[in-house]
Design brief:
Layout: H1 2-17, H2 19-54, H3 63-93, H4 95-108, H5 120-130, H6 132-147, H7 152-171, H8 173-178, H9 183-192, H10 194-207, H11 217-233
Helix pairs in contact: 1-2, 1-10, 1-11, 2-3, 2-4, 3-5, 3-7, 4-11, 6-7, 7-10
């Protein structure tokens, strides 16, 4: 699990340190910023809505404590929804730039680069298509969370785990596509290195809660995973 966290941090460090990677980052930041602003507005609305459902009514001595606890859980749940939405939509919208980012990372680390002769729109639609099956898995965890909705700690824990699993699929999408991995190959990769990818996606989820730094999570993940897959293959 620690290895996954370190891989993401290495990707972030390389993204900011190498000029050839920063050049691509600057091109995609404006798009990611606009998307983040839109999703953030929806996320804060969701915090208020869920808090209103979970915060108990009353004037007992413990009411303030329960209100704070329910509000904190509602915030976590809403932030996870926002992080999942941002990574899925952001990865699709910036897919051509992520493709270039992965190619430059591979070249930089001495890997054989596979040229992708695919148009802009095809990369975007393929990215969205690759999200469909993992999205069904996320919805299954969402149903489980809804079943336990009136037990906020359980619902939040289920949704958090489901969100991290979904991010595992999303964040490896570009490097996996460049290697021709289908869904089953990706699923096997995640199963073989379960704790690594849970640490990687969990760290990504945590960084998504940090303003401005959250804009770097998607490109940093592509750089980090491209390096890691190349290292494992070598």
């Amino acid at each position: 699990m620690i290895g996954g966290v370190l891989a993401l941090l290495k990707g972030l460090q390389l993204l900011l340190a190498r000029a050839e990677l920063r050049a691509i980052l600057w091109r995609m930041l404006a798009l990611l910023l606009v998307l983040m602003v839109v999703i953030s507005g929806s996320t804060f609305w969701l915090v208020d809505y869920v808090s209103a459902l979970w915060i108990p009514a009353g004037d007992a001595w413990y009411w303030q404590l329960l209100s704070w606890f329910a509000g904190a859980l509602a915030f976590v749940l809403a932030m996870i929804c926002g992080a999942v939405s941002f990574v899925m939509l952001g990865s699709a919208a910036s897919a051509p730039w992520l493709e270039d980012l992965a190619a430059r990372t591979e070249a930089m680390s001495g890997q054989a680069v596979r040229e992708q002769k695919i148009g802009w729109m095809q990369l975007v639609t393929e990215s969205l298509a690759n999200s469909i099956r993992p999205l069904f898995g996320l919805l299954a965890w969402g149903v489980a969370a809804l079943i336990f909705f009136w037990l906020p700690p359980v619902a939040t824990a289920l949704w958090t785990y489901g969100g991290i699993r979904f991010l595992s699929y999303e964040l490896i999408d570009t490097p996996a596509s460049r290697r021709g991995w289908d869904f089953h190959a990706r699923k096997q990769q995640l199963a073989d290195r379960r704790w690594f990818y849970l640490g990687f996606a969990g760290a990504a989820m945590a960084l998504m809660l940090v303003p401005l730094l959250n804009l770097l999570v998607i490109p940093a993940a592509v750089v980090g995973i491209s390096c890691e897959i190349g290292k494992a293959a070598g």
